[in-house]
Design a protein that fits this description.
By secondary structure, the chain is of the alpha+beta class. It is built from two helices and eleven strands. The radius of gyration is 40 Å and the shape is rod-shaped.
C-alpha cells in the first residue's frame, strides 16, 4: 500500500511538473519601453523572447488614428512584411525589429505579439516618438543673430561719430566766443 502511495505521488508530481512546463508563460523582455528617434532616422526595438517551441512573432503599430500590422514571421522562416513597411523593416530571429526612414506618422505604440505553437500568446509594447529636426530654424536664427550684431555695431559707430561731432562743435563754439587779443597783457610782479 505504501509503495502504491509513493508511486501515485510520483505520478502526481510528474504530472504537475509536465503541466508547469507546458503552461509556462511566455516571457518578452523589452530593452526600452520608450524610444525617441528623428525623422528619416532608424530605430531598433530590442527584445528577448523565451517560450516553448518555435513561436510566431508579430509586430503591430497602434497610433492615434489607426492600427497597422508591420510584420510577422517564425524564426528560421520567411518574414511577411506589410506593403507600407516594405524596404523599411528588418526582422531578426530573436524577435527584434528595425524600422528605418522614420516618418512622423510612425509615432505611437509598436506592439510585439509572441504566440507559441500551443496557442498561448503574450504582448509587449514600445512607445516610439519620432521628432522632426528643424535645421531651417537654426539657419534663420544664425542669420538673425548676425544681422542683429551688424545692426548693433552700426549703431555703436553712429553714436561714436555723433560724440566726435558734438565734441568738435563744442570746441568750435568755444573758440568762436573767446575774445581775440593779439597782445598778451603782462602784469608786474
Amino acid at each position: 500500500m505504501k509503495t502504491q502511495w509513493i508511486s501515485q505521488n510520483t505520478h502526481i508530481l510528474l504530472f504537475i511538473f509536465c503541466l508547469c512546463q507546458y503552461t509556462q508563460a511566455i516571457t518578452i523582455q523589452v530593452q526600452k519601453e520608450a524610444v525617441t528617434a528623428p525623422v528619416q532616422g532608424s530605430v531598433f526595438f530590442s527584445v528577448d523572447i523565451k517560450c516553448i517551441g518555435i513561436p510566431t512573432i508579430g509586430w503591430m503599430f497602434s497610433g492615434t488614428s489607426k492600427q497597422q500590422r508591420i510584420a510577422a514571421w517564425t524564426p528560421g522562416g520567411s518574414v511577411n512584411i506589410t506593403q507600407l513597411y516594405k524596404g523599411r523593416v528588418t526582422a531578426y530571429p530573436n524577435g527584434s525589429l528595425t524600422i528605418s526612414h522614420l516618418q512622423l506618422q510612425d509615432s505611437g505604440y509598436h506592439i510585439i505579439t509572441v504566440t507559441e505553437p500551443s496557442g498561448n500568446s503574450k504582448d509587449a509594447g514600445v512607445l516610439l516618438n519620432v521628432t522632426e529636426v528643424l535645421y531651417e530654424d537654426i539657419q534663420y536664427l544664425v542669420v538673425f543673430v548676425i544681422v542683429l550684431g551688424a545692426l548693433a555695431a552700426f549703431l555703436m559707430l553712429c553714436i561714436w561719430l555723433l560724440n566726435k561731432l558734438y565734441c568738435y562743435i563744442k570746441a568750435w563754439n568755444l573758440r568762436r566766443h573767446l575774445p581775440e587779443h593779439n597782445e598778451t597783457e603782462l602784469q608786474p610782479l
